[in-house]
Amino acid sequence: MSANGSPSGKQPTATYDSAFLRACRREPVPHTPVWFMRQAGRSLPEYRKVREGVGMLDSCMRPDLVTEITLQPVRRHGVDAAIFFSDIVVPLKAIGVDLDIKPGVGPVVQHPIRTRADLAQLRDLTPEDVPYVTEAIGLLTAELGATPLIGFAGAPFTLASYLVEGGPSRTYENAKAMMYGDPELWADLLDRLAEITSAFLKVQIEAGASAVQLFDSWAGALAPVDYRRSVLPASAKVFRAVESYGVPRIHFGVGTGELLGLMGEAGADVVGVDWRVPLDEAARRVGPGKALQGNLDPTVLFAPRTAVEAKTREVLDSAASLEGHVFNLGHGVMPSTDPDALTRLVEYVHTQTAR
């Protein structure tokens, strides 16, 4: 199947003509499709209830929980796509990296990668390492019907940052020290992570995911020259690895206004934009041939309804001339967001953009 054509040799799937996939392919849509990063999560009371007493990584490895959590925002908000509930470090955990997700902290790696010998932690990932992913996606696609499921993975740079730093960082001094000081080791690390990420995305696509998103959450910490030289090759390898499946590929990072053109160059069909750059300007930076995703500031949802609608209207107006637009926030839903504000936002976008 081509990202811009019909499935080759197959009848169209139930999701093929969905508004979300049509927008990703830059085709006419009945309305602008909407989904939210972190739409399944702490903003929902039903999520908090099913997660009681269950660790984050454990919840990602239980197909019953993954299915329920992924479906919750689809039921509540009426979004146009579901995103698979998981975490970017799941494939690393699956191949034996000693890590955990600490509440209030994030992923913490027991033995950070600082030397060439440390690369031994990173073996190849196989479908047998993540049977719970295949099972959960099978359950989800049966429930979702015509609603597409988005698979996802962490991009090599962001995964490398966690692995080298040993956990979250604001400065990335260890990761950047390796990138600048031992470029060969850095390149080998990112290449190995590209292989693992590609395998993880293939598992999701083969199980039934209709699109995939590569999260390069921390890429905004890089200058364009460093991104092009030290990061883009690995991200491009991931996008090439899944190109033959024909599913739309989305690329997203935070604070990446100066990198938007390069992120599109890496091979994505859709480039995610945070709230710092208007979509019409983002389109100029990315260039033709790409759809855009975004980009309402998540904090707008704490404002009164009239203000939310006014800011949403600004995003929609900025997107009016785009080849394809998927409405989203400029980053993930914040935990204390009122779920009803999200439901109203979906309805507002659908109503305002109905063709």
Task: Kindly describe this structure.
The chain is of the alpha/beta class. It is 44% helix and 11% strand. It has 15 helices and nine strands. The protein has helices at 19-24, 45-50, 56-60, 63-77, 90-94, 131-144, 156-165, 173-181, 183-207, 224-230, 232-242, 260-265, 279-286, 305-318, 339-353; strands spanning 82-83, 99-102, 106-109, 149-154, 211-215, 249-252, 270-272, 291-296, 325-329. The strands form two sheets. The protein has a seven-stranded parallel β-sheet. Strands 2-3 form a two-stranded antiparallel ribbon. α13 links the parallel β7 (270-272) and β8 (291-296). α7 crosses α9 (183-207). The protein starts with 18 loop residues before the first helix and ends with a helix.
Question: Numbering strands along the chain, what is their spatial order in the largest sheet?
Answer: 1-4-5-6-7-8-9
Dominant shape: globular
Contiguous low-pLDDT stretches (5 residues minimum) are 1-11
**What is the string of helix and strand elements?**
HHHHEHEEHEHHHEHHEHEHEHEH
How many helical elements? 15
- Chain-averaged pLDDT: 95
Can you summarize the main beta sheet?
7 strands, parallel
Q: How many DSSP-defined strands?
A: 9
Radius of gyration: 19 Å
Q: What structural class do helix, strand and pairing data support?
A: alpha/beta
N- and C-termini, Cα separation: 27 Å
> Helix fraction?
40-55%
Strand content: 5-15%
Provide key terms for this protein:
44% helix; disordered N terminus; seven-stranded parallel β-sheet; two-stranded antiparallel sheet; alpha/beta
